[in-house]
């Protein structure tokens, strides 16, 4: 009878753990890819319904929403520093968050919006790389663009959810760390709101037109 030594058992256990870890990595990568594809499709649907013709530049209360493929969205979030542009779902749930970030609570109109998302690389996985001074833009379904500046980044414990809406921050965005031990939380101050086709957008269009002429 062949005797299985303790050393062999440890080697077998090592191979088993390696196999499990590899399966988890592959599963997470597939889930990340699916989340990115889903969000991209939904983003097109939300962009198509942004009216770009707001009547009131100082709205209050809850944010208006649009429906795309049976899901409700309040707008779009842009984070240029980490190359993110994603639709924001109206309500948070673990199911909704698999396809795009969600409104956790609040409204841009009341300067208290909080947006949550999974740590997929194609979603909020790189929030940790933001620094003070970076810009985040939230576009509502009427085309108003709300600009925010990152001012503070902190980690909040998984069981300290009540701290998420502490303070007087104008905008907060957060995601879980890998393993879920804490939440990377980015706090922002309001900078300005722009109507579609106004301010910086017009300046940018002129600059691009001039550059194009010079290159001809």
Task: Describe, in plain words, how this protein is organized in 3D.
By secondary structure, the chain is α+β, with helices and mostly antiparallel strands. It has one domain (48-201): Sortase, Chain: A (Beta Barrel). The chain contains two helices and nine strands; from the N terminus they run αβββββββββα. It has helices spanning 6-49, 200-215; strands at 66-68, 71-79, 84-89, 102-105, 113-116, 135-140, 145-157, 171-176, 182-194. Strands 1, 2, 3, 4, 5, 6, 7, 8 and 9 form a nine-stranded mixed β-sheet that branches. The longest helix has 44 residues, at 6-49. The N and C termini lie far apart (84 Å).
What CATH architecture do you see?
Beta Barrel
- Taking pLDDT < 50 over at least 5 consecutive residues as the criterion, the unreliable ranges are 19-31
Number of distinct helices = 2
What is the CA-atom radius of gyration, in angstroms? 22 Å
Q: What is the N-to-C order of secondary-structure elements (H for helix, E for strand)?
A: HEEEEEEEEEH
Question: What distance lies between the first and last C-alpha atoms, to the nearest angstrom?
Answer: 84 Å
CATH class descriptor name = Mainly Beta
| Major β-sheet profile | 9 strands, mixed
Question: Class by helix and strand content?
Answer: alpha+beta
Counting structural domains, the number is 1
């Amino acid at each position: 009878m062949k005797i299985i030594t303790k050393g062999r058992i440890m080697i077998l256990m090592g191979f088993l753990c390696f196999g499990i870890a590899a399966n988890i990595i592959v599963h997470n990568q597939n889930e990340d890819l699916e989340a990115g594809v889903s969000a991209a499709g939904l983003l097109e649907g939300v962009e198509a319904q942004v009216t770009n013709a707001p009547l009131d530049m100082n709205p209050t209360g809850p944010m208006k929403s649009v429906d795309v493929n049976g899901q409700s969205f309040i707008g779009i979030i842009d984070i240029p520093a980490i190359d993110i542009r994603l639709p924001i779902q109206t309500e948070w749930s673990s199911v909704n968050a698999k396809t795009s970030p969600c409104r956790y609570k609040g409204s841009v109109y009341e300067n208290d919006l909080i947006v949550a998302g999974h740590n997929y690389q194609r979603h909020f996985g790189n929030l940790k790389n933001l620094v003070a001074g970076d810009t985040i833009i939230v576009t509502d379904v009427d085309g108003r663009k709300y600009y925010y500046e990152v001012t503070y980044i902190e980690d909040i414990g998984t069981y300290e959810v009540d701290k998420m809406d502490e303070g007087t921050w104008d905008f907060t965005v957060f995601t879980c760390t890998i393993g879920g031990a804490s939440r990377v939380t980015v706090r922002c101050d309001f900078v300005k709101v722009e109507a579609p086709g106004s301010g910086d957008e017009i300046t940018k269009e002129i600059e691009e037109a001039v550059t194009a002429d010079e290159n001809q």
